[in-house]
Amino acid sequence: MDILDKILAHKKKEVEERKSLFPVKLLEKSIYFSGKTVSLKKYLRRPDKSGIIAEIKRKSPSKGMINKHVSVEKTSIGYMQAGASALSVLTDYHFFGGNNEDLKLARKFNFCPILRKEFIIDEYQVIEAKSIGADVILLIAAALPVPALRQLAIFAQSLGLEVLMEVHNADELNQNLHDAVDLIGVNNRNLKTFEVSIDTSKNLSAAIPDQYVKVAESGISAPETIVELRQYGFEGFLIGETFMKSSRPELACHRFITAVNQIDETKTVGS
Ligand SMILES: O=C(O)c1ccccc1NCC(=O)[C@H](O)[C@H](O)COP(=O)(O)O
Protein backbone atom coordinates (compact mmCIF):
# COMPACT_ATOMS: atom_id res chain seq x y z
CA MET A 1 0.00 0.00 0.00
CA ASP A 2 1.56 3.35 -1.00
CA ILE A 3 0.86 6.67 0.71
CA LEU A 4 -1.91 7.61 -1.73
CA ASP A 5 -3.73 4.31 -1.01
CA LYS A 6 -3.40 4.98 2.72
CA ILE A 7 -4.71 8.52 2.40
CA LEU A 8 -7.65 7.40 0.23
CA ALA A 9 -8.62 4.58 2.60
CA HIS A 10 -8.64 7.05 5.49
CA LYS A 11 -10.53 9.61 3.43
CA LYS A 12 -13.31 7.15 2.60
CA LYS A 13 -14.11 6.68 6.27
CA GLU A 14 -13.73 10.36 7.05
CA VAL A 15 -16.15 11.41 4.30
CA GLU A 16 -18.84 9.03 5.57
CA GLU A 17 -18.46 10.48 9.07
CA ARG A 18 -18.63 14.05 7.79
CA LYS A 19 -21.75 13.31 5.76
CA SER A 20 -23.66 12.44 8.92
CA LEU A 21 -22.14 15.24 11.00
CA PHE A 22 -22.58 17.99 8.41
CA PRO A 23 -25.32 16.99 5.96
CA VAL A 24 -25.42 18.51 2.47
CA LYS A 25 -28.50 20.57 3.37
CA LEU A 26 -26.41 22.34 6.00
CA LEU A 27 -23.46 22.93 3.66
CA GLU A 28 -25.80 24.45 1.08
CA LYS A 29 -26.80 27.13 3.60
CA SER A 30 -23.28 28.58 3.66
CA ILE A 31 -22.97 32.12 2.22
CA TYR A 32 -20.31 30.83 -0.16
CA PHE A 33 -22.39 28.04 -1.59
CA SER A 34 -24.39 30.17 -4.00
CA GLY A 35 -21.67 32.81 -4.37
CA LYS A 36 -19.45 33.50 -7.39
CA THR A 37 -16.01 31.98 -7.68
CA VAL A 38 -12.73 33.55 -8.80
CA SER A 39 -11.03 31.99 -11.83
CA LEU A 40 -7.59 30.48 -11.22
CA LYS A 41 -7.06 30.20 -14.97
CA LYS A 42 -7.51 33.95 -15.36
CA TYR A 43 -5.35 34.86 -12.36
CA LEU A 44 -2.48 32.65 -13.49
CA ARG A 45 -2.45 34.55 -16.77
CA ARG A 46 -2.46 38.03 -15.22
CA PRO A 47 0.76 39.78 -16.27
CA ASP A 48 1.09 41.57 -12.92
CA LYS A 49 1.28 38.26 -11.06
CA SER A 50 3.94 35.58 -10.70
CA GLY A 51 1.92 32.45 -11.50
CA ILE A 52 2.79 31.13 -8.06
CA ILE A 53 0.10 29.29 -6.13
CA ALA A 54 1.35 29.63 -2.57
CA GLU A 55 0.35 26.86 -0.23
CA ILE A 56 -0.54 26.64 3.45
CA LYS A 57 0.86 23.25 4.52
CA ARG A 58 1.59 22.46 8.17
CA LYS A 59 2.97 18.95 7.73
CA SER A 60 3.26 16.25 5.09
CA PRO A 61 3.83 12.51 4.82
CA SER A 62 7.19 13.10 3.13
CA LYS A 63 8.57 15.78 5.47
CA GLY A 64 6.70 15.41 8.77
CA MET A 65 6.05 18.67 10.63
CA ILE A 66 6.95 21.70 8.53
CA ASN A 67 5.34 24.63 10.34
CA LYS A 68 3.26 23.99 13.43
CA HIS A 69 2.55 27.59 14.33
CA VAL A 70 1.56 29.13 11.00
CA SER A 71 -0.97 31.98 11.13
CA VAL A 72 -3.30 31.42 8.18
CA GLU A 73 -4.43 35.04 8.27
CA LYS A 74 -0.93 36.57 8.24
CA THR A 75 0.53 34.04 5.81
CA SER A 76 -2.29 34.11 3.26
CA ILE A 77 -2.43 37.93 3.19
CA GLY A 78 1.39 38.10 3.04
CA TYR A 79 1.54 35.57 0.18
CA MET A 80 -0.85 37.67 -1.89
CA GLN A 81 0.96 40.93 -1.06
CA ALA A 82 4.21 39.26 -2.13
CA GLY A 83 2.78 38.71 -5.63
CA ALA A 84 1.39 35.18 -5.52
CA SER A 85 -1.38 34.59 -8.06
CA ALA A 86 -3.46 32.33 -5.85
CA LEU A 87 -3.57 30.35 -2.62
CA SER A 88 -3.68 26.63 -2.00
CA VAL A 89 -4.93 25.36 1.34
CA LEU A 90 -4.52 21.77 2.45
CA THR A 91 -7.71 20.84 4.30
CA ASP A 92 -6.74 17.27 5.22
CA TYR A 93 -6.11 17.00 8.96
CA HIS A 94 -4.78 13.49 9.48
CA PHE A 95 -1.85 13.59 7.05
CA PHE A 96 -1.30 17.33 6.51
CA GLY A 97 -2.52 19.03 9.71
CA GLY A 98 -4.99 21.25 7.84
CA ASN A 99 -8.74 21.75 8.15
CA ASN A 100 -11.71 23.50 6.57
CA GLU A 101 -11.39 26.42 8.99
CA ASP A 102 -7.98 27.22 7.44
CA LEU A 103 -9.58 27.63 4.04
CA LYS A 104 -12.47 29.66 5.44
CA LEU A 105 -9.97 31.98 7.14
CA ALA A 106 -7.97 32.39 3.94
CA ARG A 107 -11.25 33.18 2.14
CA LYS A 108 -12.26 35.73 4.74
CA PHE A 109 -9.09 37.77 4.28
CA ASN A 110 -8.37 37.42 0.55
CA PHE A 111 -10.08 38.04 -2.78
CA CYS A 112 -8.13 35.66 -4.99
CA PRO A 113 -8.54 32.14 -6.32
CA ILE A 114 -8.24 29.52 -3.59
CA LEU A 115 -7.48 25.89 -4.36
CA ARG A 116 -8.86 23.33 -1.94
CA LYS A 117 -5.98 20.86 -1.78
CA GLU A 118 -7.80 17.71 -0.77
CA PHE A 119 -8.11 14.07 -1.73
CA ILE A 120 -11.50 14.22 -3.40
CA ILE A 121 -13.32 10.95 -4.00
CA ASP A 122 -16.96 11.90 -3.46
CA GLU A 123 -19.44 14.58 -4.61
CA TYR A 124 -19.94 15.47 -0.96
CA GLN A 125 -16.40 16.90 -0.81
CA VAL A 126 -17.08 19.02 -3.90
CA ILE A 127 -20.15 20.54 -2.22
CA GLU A 128 -18.07 21.02 0.90
CA ALA A 129 -15.35 22.78 -1.13
CA LYS A 130 -17.88 25.28 -2.49
CA SER A 131 -19.45 25.79 0.94
CA ILE A 132 -16.14 26.76 2.58
CA GLY A 133 -15.26 29.31 -0.11
CA ALA A 134 -12.95 27.42 -2.48
CA ASP A 135 -12.77 28.36 -6.16
CA VAL A 136 -10.87 25.36 -7.47
CA ILE A 137 -10.69 21.70 -6.55
CA LEU A 138 -7.92 19.22 -7.14
CA LEU A 139 -8.73 15.86 -8.69
CA ILE A 140 -5.89 13.34 -8.63
CA ALA A 141 -5.96 11.08 -11.70
CA ALA A 142 -4.26 8.25 -9.78
CA ALA A 143 -6.95 8.34 -7.11
CA LEU A 144 -10.02 7.45 -9.17
CA PRO A 145 -11.20 5.44 -12.17
CA VAL A 146 -11.64 7.59 -15.29
CA PRO A 147 -15.50 7.71 -15.28
CA ALA A 148 -15.62 8.70 -11.60
CA LEU A 149 -13.08 11.46 -12.14
CA ARG A 150 -14.99 12.75 -15.13
CA GLN A 151 -18.27 12.76 -13.18
CA LEU A 152 -16.74 14.67 -10.27
CA ALA A 153 -15.18 17.20 -12.64
CA ILE A 154 -18.49 17.83 -14.42
CA PHE A 155 -20.26 18.15 -11.07
CA ALA A 156 -17.65 20.64 -9.80
CA GLN A 157 -18.01 22.79 -12.89
CA SER A 158 -21.80 22.76 -12.50
CA LEU A 159 -21.22 24.46 -9.12
CA GLY A 160 -18.94 27.07 -10.71
CA LEU A 161 -15.70 25.54 -9.46
CA GLU A 162 -12.67 25.09 -11.67
CA VAL A 163 -10.91 21.74 -11.77
CA LEU A 164 -7.17 21.19 -11.53
CA MET A 165 -6.42 17.63 -12.53
CA GLU A 166 -3.16 16.21 -11.18
CA VAL A 167 -1.17 13.69 -13.16
CA HIS A 168 2.14 11.91 -12.67
CA ASN A 169 2.63 10.31 -16.07
CA ALA A 170 1.52 10.23 -19.71
CA ASP A 171 -1.01 7.41 -19.20
CA GLU A 172 -2.90 9.32 -16.53
CA LEU A 173 -2.80 12.41 -18.70
CA ASN A 174 -4.11 10.79 -21.87
CA GLN A 175 -6.89 8.83 -20.17
CA ASN A 176 -8.31 11.79 -18.34
CA LEU A 177 -8.30 14.66 -20.81
CA HIS A 178 -11.76 16.09 -21.23
CA ASP A 179 -13.72 19.35 -21.26
CA ALA A 180 -14.57 19.37 -17.58
CA VAL A 181 -10.94 19.86 -16.61
CA ASP A 182 -9.62 23.43 -16.62
CA LEU A 183 -6.02 23.07 -15.57
CA ILE A 184 -3.54 20.21 -15.65
CA GLY A 185 -1.09 19.88 -12.79
CA VAL A 186 2.00 17.74 -13.14
CA ASN A 187 3.12 16.51 -9.73
CA ASN A 188 6.89 16.27 -9.52
CA ARG A 189 6.64 14.18 -6.37
CA ASN A 190 6.54 10.43 -6.87
CA LEU A 191 3.97 9.33 -4.31
CA LYS A 192 5.52 5.87 -4.00
CA THR A 193 9.08 6.97 -3.26
CA PHE A 194 8.56 10.69 -2.34
CA GLU A 195 11.38 11.56 -4.73
CA VAL A 196 10.90 14.90 -6.47
CA SER A 197 12.13 15.69 -9.95
CA ILE A 198 11.31 18.79 -11.97
CA ASP A 199 12.01 16.66 -15.04
CA THR A 200 8.55 15.11 -14.57
CA SER A 201 6.99 18.47 -15.48
CA LYS A 202 9.45 19.10 -18.29
CA ASN A 203 8.96 15.66 -19.82
CA LEU A 204 5.15 15.81 -19.77
CA SER A 205 4.75 19.42 -20.87
CA ALA A 206 4.60 18.76 -24.62
CA ALA A 207 1.86 16.15 -24.17
CA ILE A 208 -0.50 18.65 -22.52
CA PRO A 209 -2.74 20.28 -25.13
CA ASP A 210 -2.66 24.10 -25.27
CA GLN A 211 -6.29 24.48 -24.15
CA TYR A 212 -5.28 23.60 -20.59
CA VAL A 213 -3.38 25.86 -18.25
CA LYS A 214 -0.28 23.92 -17.17
CA VAL A 215 0.69 23.88 -13.51
CA ALA A 216 3.93 22.42 -12.14
CA GLU A 217 3.46 21.03 -8.63
CA SER A 218 5.85 20.12 -5.80
CA GLY A 219 9.57 20.27 -5.23
CA ILE A 220 10.07 23.81 -6.54
CA SER A 221 12.75 25.42 -4.39
CA ALA A 222 14.69 27.79 -6.67
CA PRO A 223 13.51 30.94 -8.48
CA GLU A 224 15.47 29.80 -11.56
CA THR A 225 13.14 26.79 -11.81
CA ILE A 226 10.15 29.07 -12.43
CA VAL A 227 11.95 30.79 -15.28
CA GLU A 228 12.95 27.42 -16.73
CA LEU A 229 9.46 25.88 -16.42
CA ARG A 230 7.88 28.88 -18.13
CA GLN A 231 9.93 27.96 -21.19
CA TYR A 232 8.11 24.61 -21.16
CA GLY A 233 4.74 26.38 -21.22
CA PHE A 234 3.94 26.24 -17.50
CA GLU A 235 1.90 29.18 -16.21
CA GLY A 236 1.22 27.97 -12.67
CA PHE A 237 3.66 26.84 -9.97
CA LEU A 238 2.38 25.23 -6.78
CA ILE A 239 4.80 25.81 -3.92
CA GLY A 240 4.36 24.66 -0.32
CA GLU A 241 7.37 23.51 1.64
CA THR A 242 9.88 26.04 0.29
CA PHE A 243 7.82 28.83 1.89
CA MET A 244 6.32 26.96 4.83
CA LYS A 245 9.63 25.78 6.26
CA SER A 246 10.41 29.42 7.10
CA SER A 247 9.07 30.85 10.36
CA ARG A 248 7.74 33.71 8.14
CA PRO A 249 6.41 31.94 5.02
CA GLU A 250 5.15 35.21 3.55
CA LEU A 251 8.67 36.70 3.69
CA ALA A 252 10.12 33.59 2.06
CA CYS A 253 7.52 33.97 -0.68
CA HIS A 254 8.35 37.67 -1.09
CA ARG A 255 12.08 36.95 -1.40
CA PHE A 256 11.40 34.15 -3.89
CA ILE A 257 9.15 36.25 -6.15
CA THR A 258 11.56 39.20 -6.00
CA ALA A 259 14.32 36.86 -7.18
CA VAL A 260 12.14 35.55 -10.05
CA ASN A 261 11.43 39.14 -11.11
CA GLN A 262 15.13 40.01 -10.97
CA ILE A 263 15.99 37.08 -13.25
CA ASP A 264 13.26 38.21 -15.65
CA GLU A 265 14.59 41.79 -15.66
CA THR A 266 18.18 40.66 -16.22
CA LYS A 267 17.03 38.55 -19.17
CA THR A 268 15.08 41.48 -20.66
CA VAL A 269 18.04 43.88 -20.33
CA GLY A 270 20.42 41.27 -21.79
CA SER A 271 18.25 40.42 -24.80
O1 LIG B 1 3.81 16.56 0.26
C1 LIG B 1 3.70 15.33 0.44
O2 LIG B 1 4.48 14.67 1.14
C2 LIG B 1 2.56 14.58 -0.19
C3 LIG B 1 2.46 13.22 0.02
C4 LIG B 1 1.41 12.51 -0.52
C5 LIG B 1 0.45 13.13 -1.27
C6 LIG B 1 0.53 14.50 -1.49
C7 LIG B 1 1.57 15.22 -0.95
N1 LIG B 1 1.65 16.59 -1.11
C8 LIG B 1 0.60 17.40 -1.58
C9 LIG B 1 1.06 18.30 -2.61
O3 LIG B 1 0.68 18.12 -3.73
C10 LIG B 1 2.02 19.39 -2.26
O4 LIG B 1 1.67 19.93 -1.02
C11 LIG B 1 2.12 20.54 -3.24
O5 LIG B 1 2.29 20.10 -4.54
C12 LIG B 1 3.31 21.44 -2.85
O6 LIG B 1 4.48 20.67 -2.80
P1 LIG B 1 5.82 21.21 -2.12
O7 LIG B 1 6.13 22.54 -2.72
O8 LIG B 1 6.87 20.20 -2.45
O9 LIG B 1 5.55 21.32 -0.67
TrEMBL record:
NCBIfam families: PRK00278.2-4. Its EC number is 4.1.1.48. This is indole-3-glycerol-phosphate synthase. Pathway: Amino-acid biosynthesis; L-tryptophan biosynthesis; L-tryptophan from chorismate: step 4/5. Pfam families: IGPS. Residues 4-254 form the Indole-3-glycerol phosphate synthase domain. The keyword Transmembrane helix does not apply. It catalyses: 1-(2-carboxyphenylamino)-1-deoxy-D-ribulose 5-phosphate + H(+) = (1S,2R)-1-C-(indol-3-yl)glycerol 3-phosphate + CO2 + H2O. PROSITE patterns: IGPS. It comes from Agaribacillus aureus. One of its GO terms (molecular function) is indole-3-glycerol-phosphate synthase activity. Keywords: Amino-acid biosynthesis, Aromatic amino acid biosynthesis, Decarboxylase, Lyase, Tryptophan biosynthesis. The keyword Nucleus does not apply.
